[in-house]
From TrEMBL:
It is an enzyme of class 1 (oxidoreductase). Its EC number is 1.1.1.284. Residues 10-368 form the Enoyl reductase (ER) domain. It comes from the Bacteria. This is S-(hydroxymethyl)glutathione dehydrogenase. The keyword NAD applies. One of its GO terms (biological process) is formaldehyde catabolic process. InterPro entries: ADH-like_C (IPR013149), ADH-like_N (IPR013154), ADH_3 (IPR014183), ADH_Zn_CS (IPR002328), ER (IPR020843), GroES-like_sf (IPR011032), NAD(P)-bd_dom_sf (IPR036291). Its cofactor is Zn(2+). Keywords: Metal-binding, NAD, Oxidoreductase, Zinc. It catalyses: S-(hydroxymethyl)glutathione + NAD(+) = S-formylglutathione + NADH + H(+); a secondary alcohol + NAD(+) = a ketone + NADH + H(+); S-(hydroxymethyl)glutathione + NADP(+) = S-formylglutathione + NADPH + H(+); a primary alcohol + NAD(+) = an aldehyde + NADH + H(+). Has high formaldehyde dehydrogenase activity in the presence of glutathione and catalyzes the oxidation of normal alcohols in a reaction that is not GSH-dependent. In addition, hemithiolacetals other than those formed from GSH, including omega-thiol fatty acids, also are substrates. Also acts as a S-nitroso-glutathione reductase by catalyzing the NADH-dependent reduction of S-nitrosoglutathione.
């Protein structure tokens, strides 16, 4: 079939809208009509050529919601008409990782996914005979896409696509990092570096679990008002206090250091500050931000010897097929706020505007509605 898609033709070039060819679902796969997709900073990072797994030409996008239109042979868990959220972290429930119950990082199709291919090693997308590669196993910047059955979460049908698409990455990543990865307890002091589409969801998760102080750190003062609305109690602008004084300011505000900190910037210097602002003996720092290929983190080992813990979190530690439908329920029950974080909406033709708004610091989340 033909479908409209935004193609990443090469690094640092605007996405190009084309009618592309899409082959139908093979065994274990489903055809999804994408109804809406968010634009995450990770899409921008890959488009800028910073992703060691970035492949061109490809169809980016990994924060979508849509409807199953066709299923391939052997598919049993979803049927045409089901509403789904594509999962860049699938949940096969059979691999060593899924069975361990120690991680959400299902490994069953990770190798082909990282090469821009479906699990059988081929792409379903092409243009004029040239292969177009999938992205994070999702490619939601296409009106129709093909997904492995294990990489879609079936969700309730009364939830609006233009809001719940954000649960496909940002909402789950931020809230999940608090509740599944860090397991923040009531009364804890929390610091969030980077108050964008992810960091604001960390703040909302911290407020949900009853954190005490929620300190936000961002170089863009325009992010302050929204962060306060979502539960931030203290704001630090490194450009005002001085980048080298951020850690001390947090130690002073928290009587010795944060119980939990979260990096939502992808900046390795910030990641170091996020670790070093943690309380001696027990403070945990969770890396969510994705750093450019080749970057490395560093600190004095003494920081770890004295009890601070450095962790990472992908997709908030959430098990997609199990946890995503529950998060959709939380939204529909009014327990979490998504609407206020979606600051911009546009048709696919204007998707490049979403990247501009992100880089200018003017949006939290932009959503393309097909
Ligand atoms: P965003 O652009 O919406 O937000 C980033 C925020 O960080 C902005 O408010 C920006 O002003 C702030 N910032 C940048 N440099 C800073 C600095 N030096 N100090 C303080 N604040 C700074 O991006 P986003 O969509 O929220 O994504 C944030 C990061 O999380 C990205 O690196 C993205 O790739 C990553 N991410 C990771 C996962 C995961 O599963 N681990 C999931 C989604 C996104
Ligand atoms: N491809 C990159 C790594 C990118 C990365 O870390 N992605 C996160 C999700 S970001 C969503 O916005 C993730 O889930 N990582 C776990 C995984 O298996 O990819 C690289 O460095 O090669
Ligand atoms: Zn994302």
């Amino acid at each position: 079939m033909k479908t409209r898609a935004a193609i990443a033709v090469a690094p640092n070039r605007p996405l190009e809208i084309h009618e592309v060819e899409l082959d139908g679902p093979r065994a274990g796969e489903v055809l999804v009509e994408v109804m809406a997709t968010g634009i995450c900073h990770t899409d921008a990072y890959t488009l800028e050529g910073k992703d060691s797994e970035g492949i061109f030409p490809s169809i980016l996008g990994h924060e979508g919601a849509g409807i199953v239109r066709e299923v391939g042979p052997g598919v049993t868990s979803v049927k045409p008409g089901d509403h789904v959220i594509p999962l860049y972290t699938p949940e096969c429930r059979q691999c060593k990782s899924c069975l361990s119950q120690k991680t959400n990082l299902c490994t069953s199709i990770r190798t082909t996914q990282g090469r821009g291919l479906m699990p059988d090693g081929t792409s379903r997308f092409s243009l004029g005979g040239e292969t177009l590669y999938h992205y994070m196993g999702c490619s939601t910047f296409s009106n129709f896409t093909v997904m492995p059955e294990i990489a879609v979460a079936k969700v309730r049908e009364d939830a609006p696509f233009d809001k719940i698409c954000y649960i496909g990455c940002g909402v789950t990543t931020g809230i999940g990092a608090v509740i599944y990865t860090a397991k923040v307890e009531p009364g804890a002091n929390v610091v969030v570096f980077g108050l964008g589409g992810i960091g604001l969801n960390v703040i909302q998760g911290a407020r949900m679990v009853g954190a005490d102080k929620i300190i936000g750190v961002d170089i863009n003062p325009a992010k302050r008002a929204m962060a306060e609305k979502f539960g931030m109690t203290h704001f630090i602008n490194p450009l005002e206090v001085g980048r080298d004084k951020v850690v001390q300011a947090i130690l002073d505000t928290t009587d010795g250091g944060a119980d939990y900190s979260f990096d939502c910037t992808g900046n390795t210097a910030v990641m170091r500050q996020a670790l070093e602002c943690c309380h001696r003996g027990w403070g945990q720092s969770i890396i969510i931000g994705v750093a450019e290929a080749g970057q490395e983190i560093s600190t004095r080992p003494f920081q770890l010897v004295t009890g601070r813990v450095w962790k990472g979190s992908a997709f908030g530690g959430a098990r997609g097929r199990t946890d995503v439908p529950k998060i959709v329920d939380w939204y529909m029950d009014g327990k979490i706020n998504i609407d206020d974080l979606i600051t911009h909406s546009m048709p696919l033709d204007r998707i490049n505007d979403a990247f501009d708004l992100m880089h200018e610091g003017k949006s939290i989340r932009s959503v393309v509605v097909y």
